[in-house]
């Protein structure tokens, strides 16, 4: 079978929404080509240096590429995607040009073409994310290896929001913590939490594909006894209390779940929110403070921030 590559030119701010739109249209994953990768990836002390071709990257904004079977339904898929993009015009987000380009990929190249985008990445001195098909030898005995199959959901460890979230978890988690991972995607944050000492992690997602992907990755990393993956809409109908809540999701969604935090966090429990574009940082901070949480730290990478907040008083 041949495949069709659908490429949408959009903005950093719209990455998560457009990626989700393509996922809902039937893609099993997306590739994000961001010109910031050319400028910043190998300037960090943890990044790997890859031979990226500048010709593949936009001068401004982001290319988001998704892959669909070229089986006669691609024209209808394009119509559906264009209609969905049109509906997004009412959202308070800059989607940029929203131009769409379609390319054909023959079956011979398909099985390996998309894998070139995923290589081992050092998120910190300790944590390394390894695609399941890559070989890797530890640089030192203390490295924590996370093996991931990123083909079916979001959160591969390469996006700024995921990197920020992982670094925040590494800084603030303590051994024996109970954790909730809201919108788990591939399950990467749940796996990291257990590797760093969490006792139990409760991972929720609404998307059945993400749930299956998370379960597979949890099994691959031998943490299934401690990670409980299930269907859930944010923190609705969650009555347990935990020490740490993680949410790598869009700012408007973070604001939606804030009202549940006081009743879900233990005293001095923390909330790590990533997926927040810088111009939405203030709105998220205000919502957290109005719920009685104290902002402890803000981490940033390019146009994205992660906010760490603590609940000081019990209810």
Describe this structure in words.
- This protein has helices spanning 15-24, 35-40, 74-87, 107-113, 160-172, 188-195, 208-220, 251-257, 261-264, 281-290; strands spanning 3-10, 30-34, 62-69, 99-105, 121-122, 127-131, 144-148, 178-182, 200-205, 227-231, 242-248, 265-277, 293-301, 304-311.
- Residues 41-52 have low confidence and may be disordered.
- Strand 13 (293-301) and strand 14 (304-311) form a beta hairpin.
- With 315 residues, it is of the alpha/beta class.
- The chain has 2 domains: 3-117, Alpha-Beta Plaits, CATH 3.30.70.120; 121-311, Rossmann fold, CATH 3.40.50.150.
- Helix 8 runs parallel beside helix 10.
Would you state the CATH class of the largest domain? Alpha Beta
Proportion of beta-strand residues: 25-35%
Largest sheet: 7 strands, mixed
Domain count: the total is 2
H/E element order? EHEHEHEHEEEHEHEHEEHHEHEE
The order of strands across the largest sheet is 10-9-8-11-12-14-13
Q: What oligomeric state best describes the polypeptide chains here?
A: single chain
CA radius of gyration: 19 Å
Structural classification: alpha/beta
What's the architecture of the largest domain in CATH terms?
Answer: 3-Layer(aba) Sandwich
The helix content is 25-40%
Poorly predicted sequence stretches spanning 5 or more consecutive residues: 41-52
CATH superfamily of the largest domain: Vaccinia Virus protein VP39
Query: Number of DSSP strands?
Result: 14
Number of helices: 10
Distance between the termini: 58 Å
């Amino acid at each position: 079978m041949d495949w069709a590559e659908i490429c949408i030119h959009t903005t950093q701010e719209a990455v998560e929404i457009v990626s989700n739109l393509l996922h809902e249209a039937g893609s099993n994953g997306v590739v994000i080509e961001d010109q910031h990768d050319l400028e910043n990836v190998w300037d960090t002390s943890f990044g790997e240096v890859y031979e990226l071709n500048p010709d593949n990257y936009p001068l401004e904004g982001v290319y988001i590429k998704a892959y669909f079977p070229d089986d006669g339904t691609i024209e209808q898929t394009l119509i559906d995607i264009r209609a969905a993009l049109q509906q997004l015009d009412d959202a308070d987000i800059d989607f940029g040009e929203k131009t769409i380009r379609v390319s054909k990929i023959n079956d011979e190249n398909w099985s390996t073409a998309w894998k070139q985008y995923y290589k081992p990445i050092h998120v910190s001195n300790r944590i390394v994310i390894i695609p399941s098909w890559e070989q890797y030898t530890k640089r030192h005995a203390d490295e924590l290896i996370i093996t991931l199959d990123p083909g079916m959901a979001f959160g591969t460890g390469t996006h700024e929001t995921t990197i920020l979230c992982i670094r925040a978890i590494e800084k603030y988690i303590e051994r024996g913590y109970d954790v909730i991972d809201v919108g788990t995607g591939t399950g990467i944050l749940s796996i990291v939490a257990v590797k760093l000492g969490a006792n139990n992690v409760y991972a929720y997602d609404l998307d059945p594909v993400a749930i299956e992907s998370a379960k597979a990755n949890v099994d691959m990393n031998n943490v299934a006894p401690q990670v409980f993956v299930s269907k859930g809409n944010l923190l609705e109908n969650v009555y347990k209390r935990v020490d740490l809540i993680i949410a790598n999701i869009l700012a408007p969604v973070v604001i939606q779940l804030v009202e549940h935090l006081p009743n879900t966090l233990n005293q001095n429990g923390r909330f790590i929110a990533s997926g927040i574009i810088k111009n939405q940082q203030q709105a998220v901070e205000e919502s957290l403070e109005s719920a009685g949480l104290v902002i402890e730290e803000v981490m940033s990478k390019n146009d994205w921030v992660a906010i760490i907040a603590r609940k000081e008083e019990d209810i």
